């Protein structure tokens, strides 16, 4: 294991360099690998993504990781930081570090391609297989959709998902059962089921049918979600609605 | 560090497994009731304070599984509430209360 020598670098930040961070980063391809240590200067307002970028630009250019927007929009920079899945671009080192130490690994529950980059395909394949996308009904709703109506509010509650897979990595049910669609997919199905403009409510609820009952309500997804969504609450809604339909109940208040 | 809902899940699962393991023993003792002397021997044995203590543990398991199950039903069939931690605290508190109540009655 090669220990990187700490060194000061030009960063564009004019303030004093306060301290060095002890950074451990997972290095390896596929299933194998090891933690490797790096010393990175700690700066004010430094994010975990800044730390990873520092290592890649100034210490070891072979480090593989993924990011794009750096402002919490794209959902591509999620990693495991000191044991918790997080969006690294919006996670300050000061929040995540413990005694000046940061351990950065790839997301859980997804195959590692190399270092910090995981293969997101299984995550999106589940999304696709569940048909968790808007289906146009082909005709405008009979009455206008009001922003404050209960169904719209229920849909809006889960709409800000950025597909970062942080919830997927946080979820034990995903780890235990490879067939479980995961919090993000079910959250999406619930927003669609509440969207009056969507043309396939029954299809979405059918897709959630068996899967949603595998949720054990640990609420790890809700704790971890960077945009503050609560997939557990959405899944509870799905469980209720799927059960009501199984009993032959009406599918939605005021509508068949 | 795991949070409340995860521990609630774990305790509910473990109490369920423990109760399932206990159930055959319970039926075995009930089966002894046809033979008076054998049942009396078991009942005498249960007067031992250590056995009473173990029974209190059983009561806690049973109460934990009951209140935990009600919590899950409420979570899955009721309106969502953000006060899940409070509900878990209530469920656990009631179960412990049942255990202490049993002990108080047993040693009163």
Note down, in words, how this protein is organized.
The complex is a heterodimer of chains A (256) and B (108). The mean pLDDT of chain A is 89. The N and C termini of chain A lie far apart (64 Å). Helix content of chain A is 34%, strand content 14%. Chain A folds into 2 domains: 19-118, Beta-grasp domain (Ubiquitin-like (UB roll)), CATH 3.10.20; 121-246, Orthogonal Bundle (Fumarate Reductase Iron-sulfur Protein, Chain B, domain 2), CATH 1.10.1060. With 256 residues, chain A is an alpha+beta fold. Chain A is built from 10 helices and 7 strands. In chain A, a hairpin with a 2-residue loop joins strand 6 (112-114) and strand 7 (117-118). The longest helix of chain A has 16 residues, at 231-246. Chain A has helices spanning 48-59, 93-96, 121-129, 150-156, 166-170, 172-176, 183-194, 201-212, 220-224, 231-246; strands at residues 19-27, 34-42, 78-81, 84-87, 101-105, 112-114, 117-118. Helices cover 84% and strands 0% of the residues of chain B. Chain B is elongated. Chain B contains 4 helices and no strands. With 108 residues, chain B is an all-alpha fold. Chain B has one domain. The interface between A and B is medium-sized, with 14 and 11 residues.
């Amino acid at each position: 294991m090669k220990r990187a020598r700490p060194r000061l670098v030009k960063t564009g930040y004019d303030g004093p360099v306060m301290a060095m961070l002890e950074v451990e980063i997972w290095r390896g391809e596929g299933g194998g690998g090891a933690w490797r240590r790096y010393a990175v200067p700690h700066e004010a307002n430094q994010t975990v993504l800044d730390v990873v970028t520092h290592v890649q630009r100034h210490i070891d250019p072979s480090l593989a990781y993924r990011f794009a927007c750096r402002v919490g929009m794209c959902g591509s920079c999620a990693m495991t930081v000191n044991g918790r899945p997080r969006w690294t671009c919006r996670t300050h080192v000061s929040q995540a570090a413990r005694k000046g130490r940061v351990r950065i690994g790839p997301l859980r529950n997804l195959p590692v391609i190399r270092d910090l980059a995981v293969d997101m395909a299984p995550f999106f394949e589940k999304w696709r297989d569940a048909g968790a996308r808007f289906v146009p009904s082909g005709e405008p709703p009979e009455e206008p959709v009001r922003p404050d109506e209960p169904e719209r509010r229920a849909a809006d509650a889960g709409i800000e998902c950025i597909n970062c897979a942080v919830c997927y990595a946080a979820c034990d049910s995903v780890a235990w059962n490879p067939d479980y669609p995961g919090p993000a997919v079910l959250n999406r199905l619930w927003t669609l089921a509440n969207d009056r403009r969507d043309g396939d409510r029954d299809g979405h609820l059918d897709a959630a049918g068996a899967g949603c009952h595998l949720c054990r309500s640990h609420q790890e997804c809700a704790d971890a979600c960077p945009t503050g969504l609560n997939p557990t609450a959405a899944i509870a809604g799905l469980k209720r609605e799927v059960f009501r339909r199984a009993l032959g109940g009406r599918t939605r208040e005021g509508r068949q | 560090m795991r949070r409340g809902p995860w521990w609630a899940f774990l305790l509910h699962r473990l109490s369920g497994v423990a109760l399932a393991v206990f159930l055959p023993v319970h039926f075995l003792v009930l089966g002894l009731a046809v033979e008076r002397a054998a049942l009396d021997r078991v009942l005498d044995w249960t007067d031992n304070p250590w056995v009473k203590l173990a029974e209190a543990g059983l009561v806690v398991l049973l109460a934990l599984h009951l209140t935990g199950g009600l919590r899950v039903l409420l979570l899955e069939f009721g309106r969502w509430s953000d006060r899940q931690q409070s509900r878990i605290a209530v469920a656990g508190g009631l179960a412990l209360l049942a255990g202490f109540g049993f002990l108080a009655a047993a040693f009163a």
